[in-house]
Design a protein that fits this description.
There is one protein chain. With 345 residues, the protein is α+β, with helices and mostly antiparallel strands. Strands 1, 4, 6, 7, 9, 11, 12 and 13 form an 8-stranded mixed sheet that branches. Strands 2, 3, 5, 8 and 10 form a 5-stranded antiparallel sheet that branches. A 4-stranded antiparallel sheet has the order 17-16-19-20, with no helix packed on it. The protein is elongated and about 100 Å long.
């Protein structure tokens, strides 16, 4: 199963994660069994029968849906992953780190091991890369994140990925390297697609900063006859990672029936990020547009036919002209000259 479809809790905003600092926990032996997992129904054929999750905080009360780690360049950070086998058979799970990224449509996914060159490659499980899970048990596996000394500041999204026989599950790793944080973005390629009530506004968001952004979008519409319905500011359903670009669409239910509209998109995000972009579009009823097009097509056809007829007539005249020029003209006999003798006739 591709990681894209099974990556657990990948869409949790980083801003929320910042409020949940990791509670340091003492390291445990790689792959050690921490105790029996609670009894659970047998896994279905579509499920792997095990799950991966962060070890809870102090006292087991602080449930963490993801890892949040922060530190300066050159530091080594530690945390622990729990693997829970809910079936009656043994499972062998392989662990690795992976870079997280946005797909073109805004979803979050992880890269293959050979393509992970950022924070995913900084994650190490030591000798616990392969873990055997006895039936109905919970294994705790420690791991480290070694931040290179020359790492740039900001967010470095990653994930811990667990694999068995082609089935994968992952846990998000929010990693922030200490240093100046810059929130910046641009909105580009604004266009309107579709017609009638099905019109949508297409646009591209680009994260130009070094921190993850949770954007908000507002759409303002100004027509020739005054302001028309747009969209009030609302959260965009995407978590935009540093350096990534995504192409999104926004419904436009308030599009006018007949008008020329100037659309202005304003995108903001916590940290002071703000960007605007605009485009103009003609809104015409599809029926009128179709009839107008048919009328223009008919007019064009009639004009073409008239031009053809004129050319045919001119051609015929040009063919008759040489024959008329070579026709023999009637010979006119000149009148005889009168002799001037002075005698009458």
């Amino acid at each position: 199963m591709p990681v894209l479809h099974t990556l657990l809790r990948l869409g949790v905003p980083l801003l929320a994660a910042a409020a949940l600092p990791t509670v340091p926990a003492p390291p445990a032996a790689a792959g050690s069994v921490a105790g029996s997992a609670s009894a659970a129904p047998s896994a279905s054929a579509e499920e792997p029968g095990w799950r991966a999750e962060p070890v809870s905080g102090s006292g087991g009360s602080a449930v963490r849906p993801y890892f949040y780690l922060a530190g300066p360049p050159g530091t080594v950070l530690e945390d622990r992953l729990a693997l829970v086998n809910t079936t009656g058979q043994e499972h062998t799970v392989t662990l690795r780190g992976a870079d997280a990224h946005n797909t073109a449509g805004g979803a979050l996914a992880v890269r293959p091991a050979r393509e992970s060159t950022d924070a995913g490659s900084w994650i190490s499980f030591g000798s616990g890369t392969t873990v055997k899970l006895p039936p109905r048990t919970r294994a705790v596996v420690p791991f480290t994140v070694t931040v290179p000394p020359a790492s740039p500041p900001g967010d470095h999204p990653a994930a811990v990925v667990a694999t068995e026989a082609g089935r994968e599950a992952g846990v998000r790793v929010h990693l922030r390297v200490s240093g100046p944080a810059l929130a910046a973005l641009t909105v580009e390629d604004v266009a309107v697609r579709g017609r009638g009530a099905g019109r949508v506004v297409s646009y591209t968001l680009v994260n130009r900063g070094n921190v993850t952004l949770a954007p908000r979008l507002a759409v303002r519409s100004e027509g020739r006859f005054g302001e028309v319905a747009g969209r009030a500011p609302r959260a965009v359903p995407v978590e935009l990672l540093p350096g990534r670009r995504v192409t999104l669409t926004e419904p436009w239910p308030g599009a006018p029936v007949l008008d020329r509209v100037e659309l202005t998109l304003t995108v903001t995000a916590p940290g002071g990020a703000r960007a605007t972009a605009a485009t103009s579009v003609w809104c015409l009823p599809w029926g009128i547009t179709g009839r107008t097009g048919a009328g223009l097509l008919a007019l064009g056809g009639a004009t073409t036919a008239a031009l053809v007829l004129v050319r045919i007539r001119r051609s015929r005249r040009s063919r008759r002209a040489p024959a008329d020029a070579t026709a023999s003209a009637p010979v006119r006999t000149p009148a005889p000259d009168h002799e001037l003798t002075g005698a009458s006739r």
